[in-house]
Each structure stands twice: as C-alpha cells, then as structure tokens.
C-alpha cells in the first residue's frame, strides 16, 4: 500500500452459511479517488460494501482503513471513523422531514457551528433538497430521496463514502443528475467507492474500477482502460 492508501482489502472472504458470496478479493482505494465496483447481479458487490461497514463479518481476510484493521470498530462507530454508506434503497426516514433526515447524519457531532455550515453546503449542492427542507422525506421522488441520502451521508463528514446502486429505480434523466452530483462530491475531495449496475456510467465517472464475477475480482484497472477492454465491453457494457 502507498502512503495515500485509505482503504485496503486483503484476501477478503465472506460466506452466508454455505454460500460463498465473496471468495478472496483484494482491493484498494486511495485518498481522493472515486473507485467503481461493477459486476452482474449476485456477484458479491453489496456483500463487499456491507462487510466494509461491519454489517457482515468476514470469514477470512483483512480490511485496513487508514492502515488500521476495522475488525475492532463497533458497528455504531463506523460513521465516527469516517466510513459512511448510502445503502441500496437509500434508507430514508420517511416520516421525518428532509432537514431532520439530513441532521440524522450528524447526530453524533457536537460542533453546532460547523454543522450549520455543512448543512448550508449540502443545500448548495442540492438546491432541490433545500426547496423541500420541511417536506416529509417519504413524499419525495426517488431521485430526491437519493439526494437526501447522499446529503445525510455528507453531514457525517465521510472520509470514505460507500455508494450502493445510487441509480437504482431512477429514470435515465434523474440518473444523469445523480451522477452529476457524484462528480461534484468527488470534486470536493470526498473519496468514494461506488457499486453500480450501470457499469458504463460508473466507469465514465470513476478514476479506477474493479469488476466482480461470482465473488471474485476478475479485472481491475483505470476506468478508461476498463471501458476500452473488449472482454469488459462484451460482458458489462452492452457492446
Ligand atoms: P446485486 O446487484 O443483485 O445486489 P451483488 O453483486 O450486490 O448483487 P450480493 O448482494 O452481494 O451481490 O450477493 C452475493 C451472493 O450472496 C448472492 O448469491 C446472494 O444470493 C447471496 N446473499 C446475499 N445476502 C445474503 C444473505 N443475507 N443470506 C444468504 N445469502 C445471501
């Protein structure tokens, strides 16, 4: 690992009972990178993210975050360490307002003035969310909920933001908008690991990528090189 390695995953294996979902993968995310993790349904992408967040215990291998094993981090403490996930399905609190949802991302913080600044910054990134700050989050459109989920994650000042299928269930035009936002967040210096079904868009947005197939990493390269790789094109890019 180099000096600016933020996350290092070594020979990670994860099983659900007899089902081997992740079969010994290695991956790395450097400070400031946007890394895409692509692959077919059931390849083990979500399982990998859940394991990184301590929601699933690995059967073998090691996860190093800022050069320290995550094995001892308590489930509720990941966010405090800067490991934050926007889950598949967004995990919005539908009966709370938009602003209450955003503040949930900072519930553990006591720096009120900085929090107010961060809230302003989130509203600048997502003007559409700002317009609806008093609205019950459950009444938002899918795209708006995705924005709130990302805003809530940013409120916890992530060092590494894990995004699970941000485009899921959204109309193409909204997907474009969400990816524009991902680019903006990356431009602010937030390091991200992005799991995405839409492999083409993910690789067009990311710096580097990993391809997973049946629990293994089959390709890893610069995003541009993966986009140009014929095997990746045939299997994942519909070309
Ligand atoms: P998708 O894009 O469909 O979410 P994925 O690449 O994220 O796919 P995972 O959700 O990680 O894949 O699933 C990997 C494998 O593990 C699949 O075979 C899945 O059926 C299995 N699996 C996932 N969660 C569980 C669970 N809680 N119990 C048992 N098997 C599981």
Would you mind describing this structure in some detail?
- Helix 3 runs parallel beside helix 6.
- The protein has a six-stranded mixed β-sheet, with helices on both faces. Strands 2-1-4-5 form a four-stranded antiparallel β-sheet, covered by helices on one side.
- It is globular.
- By secondary structure, it is an alpha/beta fold.
- The model has no long low-confidence stretch (mean pLDDT 94).
- Strand 7 (160-164), helix 7 (172-187) and strand 8 (191-195) form a beta-alpha-beta unit.
- It is built from ten helices and ten strands.
- Bound molecules: adenosine-5'-triphosphate.
- The site of adenosine-5'-triphosphate (ATP) has 11 residues, from strand 2 and helix 1.
Give the helix/strand class. alpha/beta
Most strands sheet: 6 strands, mixed
Order of helices and strands: EEEHEEHEHHHHEHEHEEHH
Mean pLDDT: 94
Rg over C-alpha atoms, rounded to the nearest angstrom? 17 Å
Helix content: 25-40%
Figure out the total of helices: 10
Strand content: 25-35%
